[in-house]
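Subject: sequence -> structure tokens, single chain

Hey, anyone have a minute? Need the predicted structure for the following. Not urgent.
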Amino acid sequence: MARRLIGKQLDLTSQTPTEQVNDVVQNVISDIFGISGNGASQQRPSPSVCFATECALLDLIAKKQGVSVAQLTCSDEPVTVERNVYNEPLKNPERLLRSIAKGKQVSGWLRRGKRITGKDASALVNSLLFALSGHTHDLNGIILNAGQRWSTDEWSDFCDEVALTGLAAKQNINVIVEDPFHEDADAFYQQAFAKMEGTPVSIMLSKPVWGRESINRLAAYLPHVELKITPQKAGGYHEVLEAEKEAEQHGFSKGIFLAGINGTTNHNTIAMVSLASAMRFNRYFSTSFKKEGKTRLVYPCVTLENNKLQIPEGPGFATNLCRSGARKRLQALHAFNVDGRTNKREMRKALLESVYDDRFIDRELAEQERYSYSDKALETTLNSTH
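Reply:
Had a minute. Here:
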């Protein structure tokens, strides 16, 4: 994808930048796979590659205009993104209940990503509600993954069990179930919508709510449900924004969970926050993300001048990532000196004054040489066309 972008033109003054970069990416896909005599090739690039490429091109345009990607892609002012979905606490419910009993305050949304049965779900919800009763908290709700495995009887029993105690309504806590049935089980969903009426229970669809095609296919459900959209599966920054608009036209008015954060890199997380701030219905955003095994210092990279590390400044995904990566790298690695490695404590104390030898820089330069086309060459080529 990166090699085929060389020579493509970007209009840095376009009023529809997301649509423009989507067109560029789709043209590159056509160039790579083409159309044979038997029709379109079955080969397609990974949707996550398309998403990453669009993000890179939007970042390039935004840097040249001196604005953030969120400002570039929003029709109005960017929306503040609240990171409010916690994935860790419900991995160990017993420990969570003990911490609540000791006075720990919970907030946001507690989400269980691992599939759970209807019986276990009702037991988990009610145990949490009982534990929270009598304590102050800022909990908005609980999100549980049913994995498309529930029956209508399980759904009915779950709604009855949650509504019976009245604790969810009393404490203003919502309960969202992800994918209780297969997306094509229309009769099941119609029964479920009727059953959850007047209860604090609602449904979130995530499979296959990725792009506009799936939105159209599930149009009848949209007035009743929340949506979970994964940009790396939708296939592009532009596609996610268009899917949101398409859903609204079909009566959608609830919230969107922008998923895939906890499985992405720091770089991708920055891009996802920009996307979320450009969306009108983004109400759920993960607080956690995958910790990279290696903190990469990408272009523009740290340089060594007069025995001092120079950290790049200015706008852009890569610059932000480089600054944060440099701070983490400086704190995590031992410093080199003539006597070998210094201990971590001494290195931290002298962090700003430390002098690093060229091996620190050379490792990054050697990695950059592995790529035929650097970010700088790509930027120069694209800028020369406007």
